[in-house]
Amino acid sequence: MKRTVFGGRLLPWLLLAPQLLITMVFFLWPAGQAVRQSFLREDAFGLSTNFVGLANYRALFRSEEYLNSLQVTVVFSIAVAVLSMGLSLLLAVAADRVVRTARVYTTLLVWPYAVAPAVAGIMWWFIFNPTIGILPYLLNGVGYDWNHSLRPSDAMILVVVAASWKQISYNFLFFLAGLQAIPASLREAAAIDGAGPFKRFWTITFPLLAPTTFFLLVVNIVYTMFDTFGIIHATTEGGPNQATNILIYKVYEDGFLELDLGSSAAQSVILMALVITMTMIQFRWIERRVEY
């Protein structure tokens, strides 16, 4: 492999400068401001600011609403990750077996990823709407009265389905690429030895997909923590009775609706710390079981 050698020390830094500038302006600086603001108590207009230390953090962990939001986020994240990755793997296996129409099939499955989260949320809100939605109409036919505006379990199902549908396309692309990278000779040899389709998948295909699965697990956890705000806002707005009020949406509620900027900043810091911690745990322990 040919190695690139720069003639001076200045050129590499100049090439990195645009990315470093973007990272500092749009990531490091806002994160630093959030950490700073989490130790303050100020009014909505910034005219009165007082340093309160860890008071905002102590108030959060004494709040039943915040602890409920934390539990809701855990349930929501696990459900979305399992559902979206499971369906994506199933679709990728189906696409990998198709010969002539694989490109058309792949293109159709990738399209939902281009849909904005808010648009995806509105679409599923219409589908599950108790008055005009097609799915509640079908469920009423079998004796189930669907109403996500009143029933917390229905609301959770709605946001999980909407968030999973939005993420399936992304997972599908990586699973399909991972499947196509597996040598066909391995599965053919197993078939010759008498292994059936399911045994070939669980003993050969799935273990070789471990790096892809691990990567998507990390990505999906981060997705559920940060990128699902638009879906929650367009479907349930955290209701009913805080049943779908995940952490990222509570940050918005306390900061932009209730104008409690110190508490909102503290929640942002906690959320950032949770994501960083979970990512480190995944790379520290789960990655050990991954064979590259």
Automatic annotation (TrEMBL):
The chain crosses the membrane at residues 70-93, 105-127, 155-179, 200-223, 265-286. NCBIfam families: PRK10561.1. Belongs to the binding-protein-dependent transport system permease family. It is a multi-pass membrane protein. PROSITE patterns: ABC_TM1. The lineage of its organism: Bacteria, Pseudomonadati, Pseudomonadota, Alphaproteobacteria, Rhodobacterales. One of its GO terms (biological process) is transmembrane transport. It is found in: Cell inner membrane; Cell membrane. It comes from Rubellimicrobium rubrum. This is sn-glycerol-3-phosphate transport system permease protein UgpA. Residues 70-282 form the ABC transmembrane type-1 domain. It comes from the Bacteria. Keywords: Cell inner membrane, Cell membrane, Membrane, Transmembrane, Transmembrane helix, Transport. InterPro entries: MetI-like, MetI-like_sf, UgpAE/MalFG_permease. Its main location: membrane. Part of the ABC transporter complex UgpBAEC involved in sn-glycerol-3-phosphate (G3P) import. Probably responsible for the translocation of the substrate across the membrane. GO terms for cellular component: plasma membrane. The complex is composed of two ATP-binding proteins (UgpC), two transmembrane proteins (UgpA and UgpE) and a solute-binding protein (UgpB). Gene3D superfamilies: MetI-like.
